[in-house]
Amino acid sequence: MALYRVNTDDYQDQLHKKAQRLSEAYREFTSLQPELFPSPPIHYRLRAEFKVWHEGGVAHYAMYRQGEYKKPFIIDEFTVGSKLMNQLMPQVLEAINNSEVLRKRLFSAEFLTTLSGDALITLIYHKKLDEEWAQEAHALQDKLGFPILGRSRKQKVILERDYVTEQLEIDGRQYLYKQVEGSFTQPNGDICRSMILWAKSACGKNESDLLELYCGNGNFTIPLSENFQKVLATEISKVSVNSAQENIHANGVTNLNIVRLSSEEFTQAIDKVRPFRRLADIDLDSYNFNTVLVDPPRAGLDEDTCAMVARFPRILYISCNPETQLDNLKLLSQTHRIERFALFDQFPYTDHTETGLLLVRK
């Protein structure tokens, strides 16, 4: 057995070193020191996936050390996980070990929790899930008071729901977010809130409109809609677009449209290279875009999208990969200067760094 613990005494030191490395990496483009947004030192992860390791007829949670993917180590405490996750983990494992039906051919368990106290547990199997499994899973669901979801090849068994509802307070207002299992959500809730607050501060109040690419479930989009006259956002994932539409309705937002387009497709649309039926009800010429927000995947912005966003007076660029952001800055710095620079410590005690830049046309 092992306890997945971290040495919190080292936290400020590791954050300082991250900031130093980031400042050095961006020195070519800015002399600004990054604004630092620290994470809670423990219980910061809202979602996690564990391998289920079977030994002697007993199931255990297990994880892999980096570079040792054939040698899992068994854990019985996960201090970086949320308090609710740590509360649920032993209860779920006990139920699994008390039921051959739940335990047999189970290979993974996923926990999705929220700051507002909701949770979803997904059990993933190498077997067909039948009525007997559903009955056992229902009993566990009733005991926990949180939904259980079953997955197997070409199977998804929803006993109650396949999502959690998050509630975040931003500038004194409560925002509701539906977060669907399997879709992208920010893993560190406190840092997510810091990122939204920083983005609202960086944008300020505007008489113009906002374009957002890679909007996900509306995480940034919905709070930022208060700062602009109109907002148009794009996202390629159907699940995320559907969640975003529900989140728009749940939060009473009326000045925001979301369309299912990739960044490459939107570049073609705004350049009038070709029409898209998904934009049939959207008059792009009616928007007075002054700001574009991008939060791309680790690969960063492709060349055409990078050239397109460079036309905007202001670019708010959130990145989970400074290397690709720096590569994009080779083009963007030709037309824009960095006015705000932030470091968000999404994953403490790792080398991972997330950044925020506000770029303003020179």
From TrEMBL:
<comment type="similarity">
    <text>Belongs to the class I-like SAM-binding methyltransferase superfamily. RNA M5U methyltransferase family. TrmA subfamily.</text>
</comment>
<feature type="binding site">
    <location>
        <position position="186"/>
    </location>
    <ligand>
        <name>S-adenosyl-L-methionine</name>
    </ligand>
</feature>
<keyword id="KW-0808">Transferase</keyword>
<keyword id="KW-0949">S-adenosyl-L-methionine</keyword>
<feature type="binding site">
    <location>
        <position position="214"/>
    </location>
    <ligand>
        <name>S-adenosyl-L-methionine</name>
    </ligand>
</feature>
<dbReference type="Pfam" id="PF05958">
    <property type="entry name" value="tRNA_U5-meth_tr"/>
</dbReference>
<dbReference type="GO" id="GO:0030697">
    <property type="term" value="F:tRNA (uracil(54)-C5)-methyltransferase activity, S-adenosyl methionine-dependent"/>
</dbReference>
<feature type="active site" description="Nucleophile">
    <location>
        <position position="320"/>
    </location>
</feature>
<dbReference type="InterPro" id="IPR030390">
    <property type="entry name" value="MeTrfase_TrmA_AS"/>
</dbReference>
<feature type="active site">
    <location>
        <position position="320"/>
    </location>
</feature>
<feature type="binding site">
    <location>
        <position position="219"/>
    </location>
    <ligand>
        <name>S-adenosyl-L-methionine</name>
    </ligand>
</feature>
<dbReference type="GO" id="GO:0032259">
    <property type="term" value="P:methylation"/>
</dbReference>
<keyword id="KW-0819">tRNA processing</keyword>
<feature type="active site" description="Proton acceptor">
    <location>
        <position position="354"/>
    </location>
</feature>
<feature type="binding site">
    <location>
        <position position="235"/>
    </location>
    <ligand>
        <name>S-adenosyl-L-methionine</name>
    </ligand>
</feature>
<feature type="binding site">
    <location>
        <position position="295"/>
    </location>
    <ligand>
        <name>S-adenosyl-L-methionine</name>
    </ligand>
</feature>
<dbReference type="InterPro" id="IPR011869">
    <property type="entry name" value="TrmA_MeTrfase"/>
</dbReference>
<dbReference type="InterPro" id="IPR010280">
    <property type="entry name" value="U5_MeTrfase_fam"/>
</dbReference>
<keyword id="KW-0489">Methyltransferase</keyword>
<dbReference type="InterPro" id="IPR029063">
    <property type="entry name" value="SAM-dependent_MTases_sf"/>
</dbReference>
<protein>
    <recommendedName>
        <fullName>tRNA/tmRNA (uracil-C(5))-methyltransferase</fullName>
        <ecNumber>2.1.1.35</ecNumber>
    </recommendedName>
</protein>
<comment type="function">
    <text>Dual-specificity methyltransferase that catalyzes the formation of 5-methyluridine at position 54 (m5U54) in all tRNAs, and that of position 341 (m5U341) in tmRNA (transfer-mRNA).</text>
</comment>
<dbReference type="InterPro" id="IPR030391">
    <property type="entry name" value="MeTrfase_TrmA_CS"/>
</dbReference>
